[in-house]
């Protein structure tokens, strides 16, 4: 069985967007599936991690075609602002510069569904020819960027090939959509495109239960939840930090700014001398200026360690050496569906998780079911503070650890088993 995977993110791209399908490709052959991957030849990746190149299985065919990306021209206005927006880090409305507001308006209303839209037409032309010359059982598209799904829609229309569409994040309800300064006409275009994709695909895969419920209100196409997961990384034994290090790995966007957490941490440094001496707040990855300012205004500058972006293998080591891991999502009902891939890596690191997000978040159920930590809403200052102190007391006694249960089903290999079975069902379905 052969599947063609159409994706924008592929090594040497770094960040979470590349991990999901790189890992599926890594294990597909264990389930009698031969993957062929189609990617841009000259992409503009905001993050790169060349270490991921070694994870591409030997002999996997990777097709490449040029892509035109207007981000290169947007850099004429501001290289820094363009790169920041491409990473998804958008300042709060009151702190946006004129250049950033302009770039967001142009991005939102002139490039629908996104700035990679110019890759759709040439890709369809190239892949139509490829499909006519090679026996491909299923085409898979994965987004964001959601313009990738338009490639699948056109291939389905012109060739009748079976098509599975994978949504790593939702489309019209994704967290940053309301920051793109969309006109009513532009928003309607997004809604129309989303509906067309969902109703044309043979099967829809999503990464969260909330997104499945959202999409069930739009389409009768079968929908399956296949979450992200963890891989068995071959990392040497990691020694725990001697300090009480609370670490966040990944981008901290402007909306991911739990001021009550910062306040609780600061108050503990003032109320507990031992805590003040041992505590470190470690941020690994891009941090927005809004969040950084908020942390410093809370009085945590002396405890802050900024690591910036690091290769994935180093991020795994930091997860396993930290005392406590932070998972922070934007406090909005639109982000209840977000289950970041790093959650599963956090779980198997065996370090307790403190997660913050909106009420009813899918993450809260997963953390509870796996006994991997605690989840709080942004306003729960006292509960957050009490839990941190409890973890600190365990740290002092050298008993701090998480005792996770039932995480095996989230291994990348088991998840690949699930999607492999689904792909075989799609083939035989009339």
Structural class comes to alpha/beta
User: What level of helicity do the residues show?
Assistant: 40-55%
Characterize the largest beta sheet: strand count, sense, and whether it forms a barrel: 7 strands, parallel
The N- to C-terminal Cα distance equals: 17 Å
Find the CATH superfamily of the largest domain: Glycogen Phosphorylase B
What is the ordering of alpha helices and beta strands?
A: EHEEHHHHEHEHEHEEHHEHEHEHEHEHH
How much of the polypeptide forms β-strand, as a percent range?
A: 15-25%
Poorly predicted ranges? 74-78
The CATH first-level class of the largest domain comes to Alpha Beta
Count of alpha/pi helices: 16
Which descriptor suits the 3D outline?
Answer: globular
Query: What's the CATH architecture name of the largest domain?
Result: 3-Layer(aba) Sandwich
CATH topology heading of the largest domain: Rossmann fold
Query: Major sheet: order of its strands?
Result: 3-2-1-4-5-6-7
Instruction: From the alpha carbons, calculate the radius of gyration and give it in angstroms.
Output: 22 Å
Count of domains: 3
Give average pLDDT, whole number: 90
Question: What is the number of E strands?
Answer: 13
Explain what you see.
This protein is of the alpha/beta class and 430 residues long. It folds into three domains: 2-68 and 113-229 and 411-428, Rossmann fold; 71-110, no CATH class; 244-396, Glycogen Phosphorylase B (Rossmann fold), CATH 3.40.50. Helices cover 41% and strands 15% of the residues. It is built from 16 helices and 13 strands. The strands form two sheets. The protein has a seven-stranded parallel β-sheet, sandwiched between helices. Helix 8 (209-216) links the parallel strand 6 (203-206) and strand 7. The longest helix has 17 residues, at 184-200. It starts with a strand and ends with a helix. The model is unreliable at 74-78 (pLDDT under 50).
């Amino acid at each position: 069985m052969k599947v063609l995977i159409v994706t924008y993110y592929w090594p040497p791209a770094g960040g979470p967007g590349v991990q999901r399908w790189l890992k599926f490709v890594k294990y597909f052959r264990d389930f009698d599936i031969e993957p062929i991957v189609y990617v841009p030849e000259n992409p503009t990746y905001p993050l790169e991690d060349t270490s991921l190149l070694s994870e591409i299985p030997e002999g996997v065919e990777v097709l490449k075609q040029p892509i035109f990306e207007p981000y290169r021209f947007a850099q004429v206005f501001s290289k820094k602002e363009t790169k920041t927006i491409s990473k998804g880090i958008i300042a709060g409305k009151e702190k946006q510069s004129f250049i950033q507001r302009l770039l967001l308006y142009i991005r939102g209303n002139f490039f629908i569904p996104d700035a990679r839209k110019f890759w759709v037409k040439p890709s369809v032309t190239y892949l139509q020819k490829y499909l006519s010359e090679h026996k491909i059982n299923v085409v898979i598209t994965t987004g964001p960027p959601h313009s990738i799904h338009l490639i699948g829609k056109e291939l389905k229309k012109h060739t009748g090939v079976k098509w599975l569409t994978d949504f790593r994040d939702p489309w019209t309800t994704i967290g940053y959509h309301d920051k793109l300064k969309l006109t009513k006409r532009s928003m309607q275009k997004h809604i129309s495109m989303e509906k067309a994709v969902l109703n044309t695909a043979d099967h829809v895969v999503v990464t969260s239960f909330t997104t499945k419920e959202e999409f069930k209100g739009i389409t009768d196409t079968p929908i399956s939840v296949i979450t992200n997961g963890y891989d068995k990384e071959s990392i040497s034994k990691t020694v725990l930090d001697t300090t009480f290090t609370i670490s966040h790995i990944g981008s901290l966007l402007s909306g991911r700014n739990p001021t009550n957490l910062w306040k609780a941490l600061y108050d503990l440094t003032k109320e507990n001398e031992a805590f003040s001496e041992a505590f470190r707040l470690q941020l690994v990855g891009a941090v927005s200026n809004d969040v950084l300012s908020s942390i410093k205004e809370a009085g945590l500058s002396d405890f802050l360690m900024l690591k910036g972006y690091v290769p994935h293998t180093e991020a795994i080591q930091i997860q396993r050496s930290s005392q406590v891991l932070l998972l922070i999502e934007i406090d909005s009902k639109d982000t209840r569906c977000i289950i970041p891939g790093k959650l599963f890596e956090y779980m198997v690191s065996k370090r307790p998780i403190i997660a913050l997000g909106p009420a009813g978040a899918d993450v809260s159920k997963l953390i509870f079911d796996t006994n991997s930590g605690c989840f709080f809403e942004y306003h729960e200052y006292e509960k957050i503070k009490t839990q941190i102190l409890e973890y600190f007391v365990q740290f002092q006694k050298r008993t701090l650890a998480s005792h996770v249960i039932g995480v095996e089903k989230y291994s990348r290999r088991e998840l690949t088993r699930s999607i492999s079975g689904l792909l075989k069902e799609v083939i035989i379905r009339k």
